[in-house]
Structures are given as structure tokens and as C-alpha cells.
Design a protein that fits this description.
- The structure is a single chain.
- The protein is about 45% helix and about 5% strand.
- It is mainly alpha-helical.
- It has one domain.
- It has a two-stranded antiparallel ribbon with strand order 1-2.
- α1 (about 10-25) packs antiparallel against α4 (about 100-105) and α2 crosses α3.
- The relative contact order is 0.16.
């Protein structure tokens, strides 16, 4: 049963997230540890990335596309997240994202986060 604020993913998105979780050796039903999602080594960055990823997943699940810069997403805890600006900032700083972060963004359809082929 869905509750307010729950994120609903499409089947291909669920598969991608499950693949990420398997790759990180996280048992099903467990939260991804923030330590695996840090961009520059500080605790604040890890939490900020996790929050941004949550907001992005919520937006993509609802709209089926990536947000524009002006999009502000309301999270389950009632806080607002400037998801469009956050995504643009991640793109500008993509050289500092670790593999887990890039993979998580790619799973949500972010083209520039796709691994080089």
C-alpha cells in the first residue's frame, strides 16, 4: 500500500535500482548507506546527494522525465528541494561523482551520467 510521499518506479527503474543495490552488496529492504554516496568526503555532501537523488527519483517517477532548472520538489518530510538546480550542479561537478553516484543518476535516466561506451 502506497503512502503519501512514496516513490513509485517503473519496472525498468526498479531493475536498475536493484542492480545498483546488488552491486553495492546491500541486502534487499536496506537503505543505501550514505558513505557510499559521498561526492567529496564530508557527511553533509553524502546526505545532500541522498536527498537530491530521492527528490529526482520522486520527480522522474511522477513526470516520466528529468526536471528543468526551475523545478522545486516537495519531499515526504515536507521540505522543498530545488531538484532542477541540484541536477544541473551535479552535471557541472560530474568529474567529482563516484561510481555509485553516477550509476544511481544513470539509473534514473540521466544521459550524461551513463558510463562511457
Amino acid at each position: 500500500m502506497l503512502k503519501s510521499g512514496d516513490i513509485v518506479l517503473r519496472p525498468h527503474q526498479e531493475e536498475a535500482v536493484e542492480a545498483i543495490v546488488r552491486g553495492l552488496d546491500i541486502p534487499p529492504g536496506k537503505r543505501i548507506p550514505e558513505a557510499g554516496l559521498r561526492a567529496s568526503g564530508t557527511g553533509k555532501d553524502g546526505r545532500a546527494f541522498q536527498k537530491g537523488l530521492e527528490a529526482l527519483a520522486q520527480y522522474v517517477a511522477r513526470e516520466g522525465r528529468l526536471p528543468g532548472r526551475s523545478i522545486v520538489q516537495v519531499l515526504a518530510d515536507g521540505t522543498e528541494h530545488r531538484t532542477g538546480v541540484w541536477l544541473a550542479n551535479q552535471r557541472q561537478r560530474r568529474d567529482r561523482l563516484d561510481t555509485g553516484q553516477s550509476t544511481a543518476l544513470a539509473a534514473l535516466g540521466v544521459q550524461w551520467a551513463q558510463p562511457d561506451v
